[in-house]
Every structure is written in structure tokens, then in C-alpha cells.
Amino acid sequence: MYREMGIVEEDAWGTILADAARHIARALSSQSGLEEGVVLDNIRTRLLAELAHPTAPVKGGINQS
């Protein structure tokens, strides 16, 4: 999707995921009273742990027409 625009696909998705994590951290911070940076660190820690040792197998794929 992004390659057609001359953007490295992995870079684009890394940015998208980082933006999503920051938005989630901001929302959770406002509900929990924890600092946004602390919440983001917690999300990052869990994300890296999940990538290293998935708790469930990945299913599905991309339908390329």
C-alpha cells in the first residue's frame, strides 16, 4: 500500500503503530491517573514481550487481488 508512494512499508507501519500506542497511552493515562510516559512504557514492555513470545498463534493474512 505505501510502496506505491515511495515509502518503505515497514517504516510506515512502525509509525502507525507508534502513533496508536501514544494515543492509547494518553487515553489510559487520563483514566488511570498514571503519567502518560509510564503507561507508554508499560505498553512498550508488553508489546516487545508479546513479539518475542506470542501468547497466541497468528491467523489470517493479506488478500492480494
Give an account of the 3D structure.
This protein has 65 residues and is mainly alpha-helical. It has a single domain (3-52), classed as putative pyruvate dehydrogenase fold, CATH 3.30.2370. The protein has 2 helices and no strands. It has helices spanning 9-32, 36-52. The radius of gyration is 15 Å and the shape is extended. The model has no long low-confidence stretch (mean pLDDT 94).
**Fraction in helix:** 55-70%
* Oligomeric state as shown: single chain
Percentage of residues in DSSP E strands: under 5%
Shape: extended
Count of DSSP-assigned helices: 2
| Derived structural class | mainly alpha
Average per-residue pLDDT, rounded, comes to: 94
Tell me the number of structural domains.
Answer: 1
The largest sheet is: none
Order of SSEs: HH
Assigned CATH architecture: 2-Layer Sandwich
The CATH topology assignment is putative pyruvate dehydrogenase fold
Number of DSSP-assigned strands: 0
What would CATH call the class? Answer: Alpha Beta
Poorly predicted ranges: none
Give Rg in angstroms. 15 Å
Q: Span between N and C termini?
A: 13 Å
Keywords:
mainly alpha; 0% strand; 2 helices; 65 residues; putative pyruvate dehydrogenase fold
Describe the secondary structure blueprint for this structure:
Elements: H1 9-32, H2 36-52
Helix pairs in contact: 1-2
